[in-house]
Every structure is written in structure tokens, then in C-alpha cells.
Specification:
Strand content: 25-35%
Oligomer: single chain
Distance between the termini: 48 Å
Largest sheet: 3 strands, antiparallel
Helix content: 40-55%
Strand order of the largest sheet: 3-4-5
Number of helices: 4
Order of helices and strands: EEEEEHHHH
Number of strands: 5
Shape: globular
Number of domains: 2
């Protein structure tokens, strides 16, 4: 991620596999990727024609507690957000059948699908504690669910009033 404030790239990133690409009429590219291994840049060894750096691979620390209950809570909150989004927009929205089941993979999947909040995604990417990442996702999803629930009630009230 490019850090707008500091005018440089973030020091934690992720290698990615390009799974699909599409050239746009103006010669830009739309690229779909699948994150692989996370890394931390230790130092840049070259700046031109593109940045090359010395990196270390980073992994999550081993969990000290059972993360299944936390992952189940995240999964339920995600289902609530999807259900409320579908109700609010009048569209059919479903979660993919291939949702990750392992807590660490679920935490990465959720983080990668938080569109429009790059700074939050970056913070989640930098976390090396799966429990902390899932707990932050609980906060995000709870806030989103509550916001959508309030909007849904307002929409239904307005519709009832107009009948």
C-alpha cells in the first residue's frame, strides 16, 4: 500500500499470485490477485527502475487460545452483514461456498474483502496475532451490522409510511 502521509510504500506487504487480468480500453490493467506470503521490508537496495528491497517473511504467532469460538462469531457477524446488505439493497447476495474454515485463513479472507478501507486492510495485514486480527474484524463487522440494521429499519419504516 502506498502511504499517502509519508509519501512512500508501507513496510509490510504481501506477495500475490495474479489469477486474472483484463486490459482496459485506456491501456490500464485490472488485475485480480490472490495474496500469498506476507513480508516486511528491511531496507531498499535499489529505487530505479523499480524498488527492490531486502525482506523478511512474516507469519502469525502461534495462538495461545482456541480461536474457533472467535472465528464462529466472525462468521456469524459476516452472515448478518450479508443478509442485511441484501435486504437493504433488494439484491440477492451470498457468501461463497468456499469460505475458509480455519481461523487464520478466515481472518485473512475477511481482511482481503474489506473494500474501500485500504488503511484498515493494511493494519490487519501487519498484525501477527490471529486472535487480535479476528477481534478487530469483530469490531468492524459489529459496527457494520449495527449501521445496516439501523438503515434497514429506517427503510422499512419509510416504506410502511408510504403505503
Amino acid at each position: 500500500m502506498w502511504d499517502q502521509v509519508q509519501g512512500k510504500p508501507a513496510m509490510v506487504g504481501c506477495c500475490a499470485e495474479i489469477v486474472q487480468h483484463h486490459r482496459l480500453p485506456d491501456d490500464r490493467m485490472k488485475v485480480w490477485t490472490l495474496g500469498q506470503q506476507r513480508f516486511r521490508v528491511l531496507e531498499y537496495v535499489r529505487e530505479k527502475p523499480y524498488r527492490v528491497g531486502l525482506v523478511e517473511w512474516i507469519e502469525d504467532h502461534s495462538p495461545e487460545k482456541d480461536l474457533e469460538p472467535l472465528a464462529e462469531n466472525v462468521g456469524q457477524l459476516l452472515q448478518d452483514v450479508v443478509r442485511l446488505s441484501a435486504k437493504l439493497t433488494g439484491q440477492q447476495i451470498e457468501l461463497p461456498d468456499t469460505m475458509p474454515e480455519l481461523p487464520i485463513e478466515l481472518s485473512y479472507w475477511i481482511a482481503s474483502n474489506l473494500y474501500g478501507v485500504a488503511e484498515e486492510q493494511q493494519l490487519l495485514l501487519e498484525m501477527q496475532d490471529t486472535a487480535a486480527r479476528l477481534e478487530r474484524e469483530v469490531e468492524i463487522l459489529t459496527s457494520t451490522r449495527n449501521h445496516l440494521a439501523a438503515r434497514t429499519v429506517l427503510k422499512e419504516t419509510l416504506e410502511d409510511t408510504l403505503k
